[in-house]
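Any chance you could type out a protein's amino acid sequence plus the matching C-alpha coordinates because I've never seen that pairing?

——
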Amino acid sequence: MNEEINNAKDSVSTDPFDPAKLRLSESSQIGVKKVTTVLPCGKPSRQQFVRVHPDESYRLHTAIFTDDVAREHYLVEQDLWGEMAGEVLPTILFAAITRSEGVFLWPVRVPEADGRRNNWHLSMMRAAERAMQRWIRVQANMADGRYDVFEATGNLPEPEWPEMTFHEMLKMCFEDRFINSLDHAVLKALRGEV
Protein backbone atom coordinates (compact mmCIF):
# COMPACT_ATOMS: atom_id res chain seq x y z
CA MET A 1 0.00 0.00 0.00
CA ASN A 2 2.85 2.40 0.83
CA GLU A 3 4.35 1.58 -2.54
CA GLU A 4 1.13 2.64 -4.32
CA ILE A 5 1.09 5.97 -2.43
CA ASN A 6 4.74 6.62 -3.28
CA ASN A 7 4.10 5.79 -6.96
CA ALA A 8 1.09 8.15 -6.96
CA LYS A 9 3.23 10.93 -5.41
CA ASP A 10 5.99 10.35 -7.98
CA SER A 11 3.53 10.50 -10.89
CA VAL A 12 2.07 13.80 -9.57
CA SER A 13 5.48 15.37 -9.06
CA THR A 14 6.64 14.44 -12.58
CA ASP A 15 3.32 15.35 -14.20
CA PRO A 16 4.02 18.43 -16.38
CA PHE A 17 0.36 19.45 -16.02
CA ASP A 18 0.36 19.50 -12.24
CA PRO A 19 -1.43 22.80 -11.35
CA ALA A 20 0.94 23.35 -8.42
CA LYS A 21 3.83 23.57 -10.90
CA LEU A 22 1.99 25.90 -13.29
CA ARG A 23 0.34 28.33 -10.89
CA LEU A 24 1.62 31.92 -11.08
CA SER A 25 2.15 33.31 -7.61
CA GLU A 26 2.03 37.00 -6.69
CA SER A 27 5.82 37.06 -6.35
CA SER A 28 6.42 35.50 -9.78
CA GLN A 29 7.82 37.75 -12.49
CA ILE A 30 7.35 36.97 -16.18
CA GLY A 31 10.47 38.88 -17.21
CA VAL A 32 9.08 41.78 -19.23
CA LYS A 33 9.20 45.52 -18.86
CA LYS A 34 7.09 48.23 -20.39
CA VAL A 35 8.80 50.07 -23.24
CA THR A 36 7.67 53.49 -24.42
CA THR A 37 7.50 53.62 -28.23
CA VAL A 38 5.31 56.69 -28.80
CA LEU A 39 5.40 59.90 -26.82
CA PRO A 40 2.58 62.38 -27.39
CA CYS A 41 2.67 66.12 -26.79
CA GLY A 42 -0.39 67.88 -25.39
CA LYS A 43 -2.27 68.90 -22.31
CA PRO A 44 -3.71 66.17 -20.13
CA SER A 45 -7.34 65.13 -20.43
CA ARG A 46 -9.62 66.73 -17.86
CA GLN A 47 -10.24 63.27 -16.38
CA GLN A 48 -6.59 62.18 -16.06
CA PHE A 49 -4.57 62.57 -12.92
CA VAL A 50 -1.01 63.53 -13.84
CA ARG A 51 2.36 64.24 -12.32
CA VAL A 52 5.23 66.33 -13.67
CA HIS A 53 8.83 65.17 -13.35
CA PRO A 54 10.31 67.30 -10.53
CA ASP A 55 13.86 67.29 -11.96
CA GLU A 56 14.61 70.55 -13.80
CA SER A 57 16.51 68.60 -16.45
CA TYR A 58 13.14 67.13 -17.51
CA ARG A 59 11.73 70.42 -18.81
CA LEU A 60 12.64 72.79 -21.59
CA HIS A 61 11.88 76.46 -22.12
CA THR A 62 11.57 76.72 -25.92
CA ALA A 63 9.40 77.94 -28.78
CA ILE A 64 6.64 75.73 -30.17
CA PHE A 65 4.58 75.99 -33.34
CA THR A 66 1.04 74.66 -32.97
CA ASP A 67 -0.91 73.51 -36.00
CA ASP A 68 -4.39 74.42 -34.75
CA VAL A 69 -6.11 72.54 -37.58
CA ALA A 70 -4.39 69.19 -36.95
CA ARG A 71 -3.95 69.94 -33.22
CA GLU A 72 -0.27 69.05 -33.35
CA HIS A 73 2.73 70.70 -31.73
CA TYR A 74 6.03 71.12 -33.57
CA LEU A 75 9.45 71.78 -32.14
CA VAL A 76 11.17 74.55 -34.10
CA GLU A 77 14.89 75.00 -34.71
CA GLN A 78 16.12 78.07 -32.86
CA ASP A 79 17.47 79.74 -36.05
CA LEU A 80 13.88 80.02 -37.36
CA TRP A 81 12.27 81.63 -34.33
CA GLY A 82 12.80 85.18 -35.62
CA GLU A 83 11.41 84.38 -39.06
CA MET A 84 8.41 82.65 -37.51
CA ALA A 85 7.61 85.42 -35.02
CA GLY A 86 3.92 85.38 -34.24
CA GLU A 87 3.68 81.69 -35.18
CA VAL A 88 6.00 80.22 -32.56
CA LEU A 89 5.13 80.80 -28.95
CA PRO A 90 7.29 80.67 -25.83
CA THR A 91 6.48 77.41 -24.10
CA ILE A 92 7.82 75.16 -21.38
CA LEU A 93 7.73 71.46 -22.19
CA PHE A 94 7.29 69.40 -19.02
CA ALA A 95 7.82 65.63 -18.86
CA ALA A 96 4.57 64.30 -17.40
CA ILE A 97 2.99 60.95 -16.61
CA THR A 98 -0.55 59.68 -16.09
CA ARG A 99 -1.73 57.20 -13.45
CA SER A 100 -1.61 54.46 -16.11
CA GLU A 101 2.09 55.31 -16.67
CA GLY A 102 1.46 57.05 -19.97
CA VAL A 103 4.38 59.42 -20.44
CA PHE A 104 3.89 62.59 -22.49
CA LEU A 105 5.28 66.10 -22.94
CA TRP A 106 2.99 68.78 -21.56
CA PRO A 107 3.38 72.12 -23.39
CA VAL A 108 2.57 75.07 -21.14
CA ARG A 109 2.57 78.56 -22.60
CA VAL A 110 4.78 80.99 -20.74
CA PRO A 111 2.77 83.86 -19.24
CA GLU A 112 3.08 87.04 -21.32
CA ALA A 113 6.31 89.01 -20.83
CA ASP A 114 4.59 92.34 -21.60
CA GLY A 115 3.00 92.45 -18.15
CA ARG A 116 -0.50 91.49 -19.31
CA ARG A 117 -2.03 88.71 -17.26
CA ASN A 118 -3.49 85.73 -19.11
CA ASN A 119 -5.25 83.53 -16.58
CA TRP A 120 -5.35 80.56 -18.97
CA HIS A 121 -1.55 80.46 -19.21
CA LEU A 122 -0.96 81.38 -15.58
CA SER A 123 -3.35 78.74 -14.19
CA MET A 124 -1.88 76.04 -16.47
CA MET A 125 1.66 76.95 -15.36
CA ARG A 126 0.62 76.76 -11.70
CA ALA A 127 -1.06 73.40 -12.35
CA ALA A 128 2.15 71.98 -13.86
CA GLU A 129 4.19 73.31 -10.93
CA ARG A 130 1.75 71.76 -8.44
CA ALA A 131 1.90 68.43 -10.31
CA MET A 132 5.59 68.15 -9.40
CA GLN A 133 4.52 67.27 -5.84
CA ARG A 134 0.91 66.02 -6.11
CA TRP A 135 -1.36 64.05 -8.45
CA ILE A 136 -3.64 66.62 -10.11
CA ARG A 137 -6.12 66.91 -12.92
CA VAL A 138 -6.88 70.07 -14.89
CA GLN A 139 -10.22 71.20 -16.28
CA ALA A 140 -11.09 74.29 -18.33
CA ASN A 141 -13.33 76.77 -16.54
CA MET A 142 -14.83 78.66 -19.48
CA ALA A 143 -16.94 80.97 -17.30
CA ASP A 144 -13.93 82.28 -15.37
CA GLY A 145 -11.36 82.08 -18.19
CA ARG A 146 -8.89 79.79 -16.44
CA TYR A 147 -8.05 76.17 -15.67
CA ASP A 148 -9.28 74.68 -12.42
CA VAL A 149 -6.92 72.29 -10.67
CA PHE A 150 -8.13 69.30 -8.67
CA GLU A 151 -5.81 67.38 -6.34
CA ALA A 152 -6.27 63.68 -5.64
CA THR A 153 -7.45 63.19 -2.07
CA GLY A 154 -6.33 59.57 -1.79
CA ASN A 155 -2.86 58.41 -0.88
CA LEU A 156 -1.75 57.64 -4.45
CA PRO A 157 1.70 56.09 -4.98
CA GLU A 158 4.55 58.08 -6.48
CA PRO A 159 4.85 57.71 -10.27
CA GLU A 160 7.23 55.18 -11.76
CA TRP A 161 9.14 57.09 -14.43
CA PRO A 162 10.57 55.15 -17.37
CA GLU A 163 14.32 54.93 -17.77
CA MET A 164 14.50 57.67 -20.41
CA THR A 165 16.43 60.89 -20.54
CA PHE A 166 14.62 64.08 -21.47
CA HIS A 167 16.69 64.14 -24.67
CA GLU A 168 15.27 60.71 -25.58
CA MET A 169 11.76 61.94 -24.81
CA LEU A 170 12.19 65.00 -27.06
CA LYS A 171 13.50 62.89 -29.91
CA MET A 172 10.72 60.31 -29.60
CA CYS A 173 8.04 62.99 -29.43
CA PHE A 174 9.25 65.36 -32.15
CA GLU A 175 11.29 63.19 -34.52
CA ASP A 176 8.66 63.61 -37.24
CA ARG A 177 7.39 66.98 -35.97
CA PHE A 178 10.54 69.11 -36.10
CA ILE A 179 10.64 72.27 -38.21
CA ASN A 180 14.18 73.00 -39.36
CA SER A 181 13.39 74.80 -42.63
CA LEU A 182 10.92 77.37 -43.91
CA ASP A 183 10.20 74.82 -46.65
CA HIS A 184 8.65 72.43 -44.10
CA ALA A 185 5.33 71.06 -45.41
CA VAL A 186 3.36 72.46 -42.46
CA LEU A 187 4.68 75.97 -43.10
CA LYS A 188 4.02 75.68 -46.83
CA ALA A 189 0.42 74.75 -46.03
CA LEU A 190 0.18 77.73 -43.67
CA ARG A 191 1.33 80.02 -46.52
CA GLY A 192 -1.11 78.39 -48.94
CA GLU A 193 1.64 76.94 -51.13
CA VAL A 194 0.34 73.35 -51.08
